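[Automated response] Your request has been received and processed.

Submitted sequence:
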Amino acid sequence: MPATGDDPHQVGNALEWWPHYVVLSADKVKGLRNSTTVHDFANTLSVAPRTYWLRRDDAEFVVFCFAKPEDAETFCKRFGGERLSGTQQ
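Generated structure:
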């Protein structure tokens, strides 16, 4: 079935649906308790259904994507994350 462009889960549409990125150190998401805390909070916001990993200078990070810029900012402040601009993605 051809893609219609309406499915937010298609990789090409992710930038349109969730264009606001927050990067957390992977250590903040490791372990059941940390993972549950971070993901439960993200799920109250406009977070994308999936995260992805990023490696920078031998450090690992988890990237959360949000539909609303204010949700990305709230999440960033809550967990000490870093916002990614469009040029850093």
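Summary generated for your ticket: The two ends are 29 Å apart (CA to CA). Strands lie at 20-25, 52-56, 59-66, 82-84.
If you did not submit this request, please reply to this message.
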